């Protein structure tokens, strides 16, 4: 199985793994979703998101071990609903799409450690077609609403 990202909460010794290569090339292998270990990797719990195929990045809340955000690239060359930005508030039992959904391949997350409600993400347009949804998006409310802060033109170097 390929790994897209690993995030570790050192205080709780919890390891989060998102499967599927996080690059989007023709030779990328897909994964089957999210996993978590609460015992230093001795055993693993499957957390879902089976159609995510490619997890770009995992960001953990700096003080609440039950909150995590996952950047999902989704299927690389075909439409699917399970892509975008996902958030859990219950340790991965359930996931909610935060509004950047099936038209966005989300590859990166940057979270403000002093205010985790401020998050930036890098988004590619759906199926690599030029559109207004490519660029950098920002939220100041933990992912409830998003604003595009940078537009990336398809020919930008």
Task: Give the secondary structure arrangement, pairings included.
Elements: E1 3-9, E2 14-19, E3 34-37, E4 45-48, E5 55-60, E6 68-72, E7 84-88, E8 96-97, E9 104-111, E10 119-125, E11 135-139, E12 147-151
Antiparallel strand pairs: 1-2, 2-3, 3-4, 5-6, 6-7, 7-8, 9-10, 10-11, 11-12
Describe the structure.
- This protein is mostly beta strands and 157 residues long.
- The chain is 0% helix and 41% strand.
- The protein has strands spanning 3-9, 14-19, 34-37, 45-48, 55-60, 68-72, 84-88, 96-97, 104-111, 119-125, 135-139, 147-151.
- The strands form three sheets. A four-stranded antiparallel sheet has the order 1-2-3-4, with no helix packed on it. The chain has a four-stranded antiparallel sheet with strand order 5-6-7-8, with no helix packed on it. It has a four-stranded antiparallel sheet with strand order 9-10-11-12, with no helix packed on it.
- Strand 1 and strand 2 form a beta hairpin.
- It is globular.
- The mean pLDDT is 86.
Approximate helicity band: under 10%
Average pLDDT for all residues? 86
How many strand elements?
Answer: 12
Category from helices, strands and their pairing: mainly beta
Order of helices and strands: EEEEEEEEEEEE
Indicate the radius of gyration in whole angstroms: 15 Å
Shape: globular
Describe the sheet with the most strands.
4 strands, antiparallel
Sheet-strand content, in percent, reads 35-45%
Please list the strands of the largest sheet in the order they lie side by side. 1-2-3-4
């Amino acid at each position: 199985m390929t790994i897209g990202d690993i995030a570790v909460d050192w205080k709780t010794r919890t390891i989060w793994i998102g499967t599927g290569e996080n690059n989007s090339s023709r030779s990328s292998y897909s994964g089957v979703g999210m996993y978590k270990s609460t015992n230093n990797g001795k055993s693993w719990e499957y957390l879902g998101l089976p159609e995510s195929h490619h997890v770009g990045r995992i960001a953990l809340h700096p003080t609440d071990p039950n909150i995590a955000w996952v950047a999902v690239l989704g299927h690389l060359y075909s439409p699917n609903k399970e892509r975008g930005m996902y958030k859990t508030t219950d340790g991965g039992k359930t996931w909610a799409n935060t509004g950047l959904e099936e038209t966005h391949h989300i590859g990166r997350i940057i979270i403000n450690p002093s205010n985790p409600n401020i998050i930036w993400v890098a988004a590619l347009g759906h199926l690599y077609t030029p559109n207004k949804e490519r660029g950098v998006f920002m939220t100041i409310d933990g992912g409830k609403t998003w604003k595009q802060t940078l537009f990336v033109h398809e020919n930008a170097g």
